[in-house]
Design goal:
- The chain has 493 residues and is mainly α.
- 75% of the residues lie in helices and 3% in strands.
- The strands form two sheets. Strands 1-2 form a two-stranded antiparallel ribbon. A two-stranded antiparallel sheet has the order 3-4.
- The protein is globular, with a radius of gyration of 22 Å.
Amino acid sequence: MGEFWNWLTVTAPAWLNETLWSTPMIIFCIGVGILFSFLTRFLQVRLVKDMLRQLFRGKSSDAGISSFQAFAVALSGRVGTGNIAGVATAIGFGGHGAVFWMWAIAFLGAATAYVESTLAQIYKVKQDGEYRGGPAYYIEKGIGWKWYGVIFAIATVVALSFLMPGVQANAIASSIDTAFGIDTWITGIALMLLLALIIFGGVKRIANVAQVVVPFMAIGYILVSLIIILFNISEVPAVFALIFRSAFGADAAFGGILGAAISWGVKRGIYSNEAGQGTGPHAAGAAEVSHPAKQGLVQAFSVYVDTWLVCTATAFMILFTGAYNVEAPDGTMIVENIPGVEEPGAEYTQIAIEEVIPGFGADFVAVSLFFFAFTTIMAYYYMAETNIAYLIRSKVNKWAMFALKIVMLGAVYFGSVKTASNAWVFGDIGLGIMVWLNLIAILILAKPALKALKDYEIQKKQGLDPVFDPEKLGIKNADYWVERNKSQEEKVS
């Protein structure tokens, strides 16, 4: 029995994780990002001004949330443990070069995020008085594969309510234990109670909390990183040079782990920015906008904020202070600047800040992780709830939603007290399943998102505030928009 349990909880998850995140996945993610970058004519460069402009345009309604609230909810899902512990893990196993590949996947991922989030808007529905959207909806309505939509919805519910919250909760509990000496089980109970207060209030409460907390936590974290960089300003040229040399195997010390640099950079980059994962579209589908491309552009910008600002802040704090170890695939140490720290994680960032601001690092990282990871758990709940709504499609689904809340709260407590390595393995499995399913879907269904982008740009050139008409563009099954346009025409007449 003991051997079977060990296989079930250790061997099998490790094998599944390695299979999901093998070389084909890395190639697939990069390839999809490159393809969408060319098909959108590199909107991530051309339309940055539009991203910023649309961020504050859409207003909330009884059925939907504002563009900024959707941005905040999606960003709360993106900005989490991956921005602190995940970046440290990428550096610990991939070296300096992993940072470059995190940047690269964010650049390419912005185009992917546009496509999936625009599709969520095109095929969203109004259900129980609220907008619902996401991969399950656009898979069924856009491709016509209800069975595939059901598979994605089930996988997402399992991943976001059971597998992935543990990573976030574990990071919070372990960092608070390190900083304040509070037992992980106590933190686990506190997290459960606080999460219950928010998720029992529905999407509006989640959006209201996110739009206040997310900007505050991101700005504060970046400001501290700037202080660290200023204290080590002379290291800037050397660190940048080493990042770029290591990214392409040109550095003697890190040349032997080029594959690990790419693999860990892409894997942790996707875990952090979530482009292509299918999580961002859930918040995008809930936004009240006049044209799907508007919210697609807003969500593309959220990838930049997550990786180019928050992840880069963590990477620079670690690299500029030398608070890291780098382990080769065979277990030997390439760099061992902080002996005694066995696993890369949030402790790297804590040590880095302590180097410059003694007595501040552990507490600051613990507080930052709490805000980062807790808002991510919050976003996970909303996304899981959306997929429960898709699966049931009945007004009488209160018991299912209640059961989801209980499962989520249990997963948060369990994640708080289990080991970090197990938490990351299960989290990566959940992420890997969603990425595979979603990337296949948006590759098949990219055309409507590209039509929407072209239509948006044509209307902008005409000096209009873009309004979406799917029938004019030949996009079928965009039922919400057809009904919306008919309703507005009736009001005018």
